């Protein structure tokens, strides 16, 4: 069976899925890349672009007309063709079913109330949609279904998916990480850019609130400098001066994984501006309890409130979660263990690749548990 993924670049988000597809029995997997790395202004490309070992063929359609022609022929021949962000002209005139791999594309409140935006969306995305040929949407965001369905696309053809970084799957974690009580040091972590829609101030808010209720906690804050970060540091100057916050501008992925491995609580505060949120997944693989904003793309794909994390929609709900943790910090072990088990056994690149292949082999009829990739969304 020939499986193709068409994308504009090789990023860590797609790498482990590609690797898992290539390792599936009787699968000939090929990756089509449509843009040279020099064209990509992307932090993840810089971090990972030169450090990946590929166990599959890569066709660089930008290299020559020969490679471009080869890429188009492979797209036509493939038994499974997954398309992400790519050179649109590679798909021009190709009549076949696709698996469109996408986050939600409208990331502002009430976007659908603006007629120009609403009319533009079908024009942009209809080109990837061949409903008569049975195309499906691989939802890299919980809200992708909403956006495409509002445009009349992929109704009843939306499948749970996401991104699948390796995180700490299979890695050794500290054996004495849990349980903890009020006297033990509760390690909070935030990893992400200091921009408005990521709401990095929530991590400082959580630190202050938990300490005000007698919890011995500290914060590790990994974020590049920005004006917002400066304002947050000024607001929480006392906590920083007291040595309660470790601050890093940028760290290699292996160092971030080490921080996750030693942490107890991850604050994932992004709103709808977050298409997915790979750091949430990485924290869950590290046996970290997560507090996640329901508006982010990954939250409702990955987190079941009270089972493998905590979900909030409002500040009142966030306060209630923090109050409960302050009363009983040992409750974090249950959800952290649930998160680790979920990513190890149910939601990872290997399960996603296997389920996708089985779905196609079954003639698009096989169903999967709600907590696994390729289940109906």
Describe what this molecule looks like in 3D:
The chain has helices at 12-23, 43-48, 65-77, 115-125, 144-150, 201-212, 227-235, 237-241, 253-262, 278-285, 299-302, 315-327, 332-346, 349-361; strands spanning 2-7, 28-33, 57-60, 80-83, 99-102, 136-139, 158-160, 186-191, 217-222, 245-248, 265-268, 289-293, 310-312. It has a 7-stranded parallel sheet, with helices on both faces. Strands 10-9-8-11-12-13 form a 6-stranded parallel sheet, with helices on both faces. By secondary structure, it is of the alpha/beta class. It folds into 2 domains: 2-166 and 347-361, Glycogen Phosphorylase B (Rossmann fold, 3-Layer(aba) Sandwich); 186-345, Glycogen Phosphorylase B (Rossmann fold), CATH 3.40.50. Helices cover 37% and strands 16% of the residues. α1 crosses α14 and α6 packs across α12.
The count of β-strands is: 13
Backbone structural class: alpha/beta
Spatial strand sequence of the major β-sheet = 3-2-1-4-5-6-7
Distance between the termini: 26 Å
Name of the CATH class of the largest domain = Alpha Beta
CATH superfamily of the largest domain, by name, is Glycogen Phosphorylase B
Radius of gyration: 21 Å
CATH architecture of the largest domain: 3-Layer(aba) Sandwich
Q: List the quaternary state of the chains.
A: single chain
**Count of separate structural domains:** 2
Percent range for helical residues?
25-40%
Q: What is the count of DSSP helices, taking H or I runs of 4+ residues?
A: 14
Q: Report the portion of residues in β strands.
A: 15-25%
């Amino acid at each position: 069976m020939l499986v193709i993924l068409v994308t504009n670049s090789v990023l860590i988000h797609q790498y482990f899925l590609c690797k898992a597809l290539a390792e599936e029995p009787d699968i000939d997997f090929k990756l089509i890349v449509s843009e040279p790395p020099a064209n990509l202004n992307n932090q993840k490309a810089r971090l990972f672009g030169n450090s990946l070992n590929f166990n599959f063929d890569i066709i660089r359609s930008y290299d020559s007309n020969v490679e471009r022609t080869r890429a188009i022929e492979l797209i036509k021949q493939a038994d499974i063709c997954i398309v992400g962000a790519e050179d649109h002209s590679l798909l021009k005139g190709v009549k076949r079913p696709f698996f469109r791999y996408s986050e939600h594309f409208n990331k502002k409140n009430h976007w659908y109330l603006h007629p120009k935006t609403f009319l533009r969306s079908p024009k942009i995305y209809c080109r990837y949609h061949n409903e008569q040929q049975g195309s499906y949407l691989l939802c890299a965001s919980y809200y992708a279904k909403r956006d495409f369905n509002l445009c009349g696309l992929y109704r009843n053809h939306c499948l749970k998916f996401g991104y699948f970084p390796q995180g700490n799957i299979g890695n050794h974690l500290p054996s004495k990480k849990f349980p903890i009580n009020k006297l033990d040091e509760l390690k909070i972590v935030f990893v992400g850019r200091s921009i408005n829609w990521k709401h990095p101030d929530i991590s400082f808010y959580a630190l202050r609130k938990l300490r005000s209720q007698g919890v011995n906690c500290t914060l590790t804050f990994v974020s590049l400098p920005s004006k917002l970060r400066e304002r947050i540091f000024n607001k929480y100057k006392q906590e920083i001066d007291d040595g309660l916050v470790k601050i890093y501008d940028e760290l290699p992925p292996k160092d971030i994984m080490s921080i996750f491995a030693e942490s107890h609580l991850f604050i994932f505060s992004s709103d709808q501006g977050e298409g997915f949120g790979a750091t949430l997944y990485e924290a869950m693989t590290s046996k970290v309890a997560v507090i996640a904003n329901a508006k982010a793309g990954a939250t409702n794909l990955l987190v079941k409130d009270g089972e493998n994390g905590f979900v909030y929609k409002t500040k009142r709900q966030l306060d209630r979660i923090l109050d409960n943790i302050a009363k009983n910090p040992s409750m974090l072990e249950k959800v952290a263990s649930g998160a680790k088990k979920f990513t190890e056994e149910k939601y990872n690149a290997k399960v996603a690749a296997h389920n996708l292949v089985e779905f196609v082999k079954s003639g698009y009829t096989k169903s999967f548990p709600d907590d696994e990739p390729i289940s109906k969304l």
